[in-house]
Amino acid sequence: MRVYILALQNRIYFAEKLLEDIKNARIISKPFVDETVTEIATDVKRRIAGADIILAIIDEKSNNSVMFNTELQLALMESRKNRNKMLIPIILDDVAVPVTIEDTLYIKCNSESEEDLEKTKLKIVRMMEHKRYIVKKQKLRENKSRTSSMVILTLAIEVFAVLFIVLLIKEPSFNIGHWDDKGIMISSLVGIMTTLSIATLSTSYLSIMKRRRQEDEEEEIEFYSRRLKRAIVPEESKQPQNNKSGNEETKKEIDALGRMMINLEDIKEFYTWSQKQAKASFILAVSMCISGFVLMVVAILLPVVFRLSFQMSIIPAVGGAITEVIAGTALIVYRNSLSQLNHYHKALHEDERFLSSVNLLGKFSTVEARDDMLREIIRSEIQMNLAVIHENVKSDSSSIKENSKK
């Protein structure tokens, strides 16, 4: 989020200190050098208009500053005009609250207290998170309204196309066996309307599914990033420690855990990709199978029901055969994706078994028993890994021998 700092020159550092640990906070305000009053006013308006958060530091001196009060009035007008902007006034050292912001949510802070400073940081973070939630909710409402409009438009086009075809069939002059200029024109209109309706329906469906997939991916990535950050940098590591050896051990644990979580992130990306591939291939296989069956039925009905020549049924028959081949290929891809997912779940089960065994070490009463059991767990894990490697090498060698015989 873009943050504009509204403060006197001696309070700029204090405002930057409040924002230094806040993620995604980018300061867009900077001191003015060799600029006229008109240029400064124009630049201030532009920066306030482009800011998402306006952080106002109010102390005793700022109440007597004409330029500060002018900027504060401008910030108030912008925040009231645009609900996506947020004005966060910070009242320092029990200074009297200005009349202009009495109806605004503000934060009181003692500039000399480190504890009060940390509390103020936490309040700012919560307000920014609430702001992000509101903006995200507004975007979601806009997307839902667009989706509803698109669905209504699609249904209207579909209903119009169906009514047009029904009225055309009921027309007394409608004859399948004989086509004049009027019939060709009507059939062209029917084809155009049908194509437009199918294209509109497909576009609506794809856009809705794409939007939902993007929303799900954003929520999943945000949730996974929070879990990853908590795992890599636990709360205990943030507290200062006096023992140097303890610091080194904690750093090694965090580094090892960080590498593990990076690997897990790669595995999760692979798992998500395999899951989407399996779902997409299954949907493609089912749709292609149904489409191929419909084309086969059309190829049979053309010479029987509509009294057309068998040559007219060759095109849908060939199309149905090609569609069924595509469906079979998609089913093969689906089977391979399922095998990859089964491999992932098997590896996950092995990791859970190892971690649960390590977790049970805390149940032992003595340190010697824990060390002995930990050695046994590590030994059994190494033996299992060696057995798996030996089995893989054996299967690879047998497959190579079979290929050489062929």
From TrEMBL:
<dbReference type="InterPro" id="IPR000157">
    <property type="entry name" value="TIR_dom"/>
</dbReference>
<dbReference type="Pfam" id="PF20712">
    <property type="entry name" value="CyanoTRADDas_TM"/>
</dbReference>
<feature type="domain" description="TIR">
    <location>
        <begin position="14"/>
        <end position="118"/>
    </location>
</feature>
<feature type="domain" description="Cyanobacterial TRADD-N associated 2 transmembrane">
    <location>
        <begin position="275"/>
        <end position="341"/>
    </location>
</feature>
<feature type="transmembrane region" description="Helical">
    <location>
        <begin position="184"/>
        <end position="206"/>
    </location>
</feature>
<dbReference type="Pfam" id="PF13676">
    <property type="entry name" value="TIR_2"/>
</dbReference>
<keyword id="KW-1133">Transmembrane helix</keyword>
<feature type="transmembrane region" description="Helical">
    <location>
        <begin position="312"/>
        <end position="334"/>
    </location>
</feature>
<keyword id="KW-0472">Membrane</keyword>
<dbReference type="GO" id="GO:0007165">
    <property type="term" value="P:signal transduction"/>
</dbReference>
<keyword id="KW-0812">Transmembrane</keyword>
<feature type="transmembrane region" description="Helical">
    <location>
        <begin position="147"/>
        <end position="169"/>
    </location>
</feature>
<dbReference type="InterPro" id="IPR035897">
    <property type="entry name" value="Toll_tir_struct_dom_sf"/>
</dbReference>
<feature type="transmembrane region" description="Helical">
    <location>
        <begin position="282"/>
        <end position="306"/>
    </location>
</feature>
<dbReference type="InterPro" id="IPR048567">
    <property type="entry name" value="CyanoTRADDas_TM"/>
</dbReference>
<protein>
    <submittedName>
        <fullName>TIR domain-containing protein</fullName>
    </submittedName>
</protein>
